[in-house]
Specification:
It is a single chain. Helix content is 62%, strand content 0%. With 68 residues, it is mostly helical. It has a single domain (5-61), classed as Orthogonal Bundle (434 Repressor (Amino-terminal Domain)), CATH 1.10.260.40. It is globular and about 35 Å long. The two termini are 18 Å apart.
Length: 68
């Protein structure tokens, strides 16, 4: 699992800090840091909550880019 730069970019585009996003989805800031670093694999429910908070989709935020 690599860094989640899409999530970081979407969060920044919304003008949200890691703490803002954490509060919006009910986790700690450390959890958001770990997801963005690729050190934590969130549950599907948390992925959905993050997508709703950032106004994006699962595909747009968590699906890996194709390399072909």
């Amino acid at each position: 699992m690599g860094k989640n730069l899409k999530m970081k970019a979407a969060r920044a585009a919304k003008g949200m800090t890691q703490q803002d996003l954490a509060a919006a989805v009910g986790v700690t800031r450390q959890t958001i840091v770990a997801i963005e670093r690729g050190d934590y694999n969130p549950t599907v429910r948390l992925c959905v909550d993050i997508c709703l908070a950032l106004g994006t989709t699962l595909d747009g935020l968590f699906w890996p880019d194709r390399k072909d």
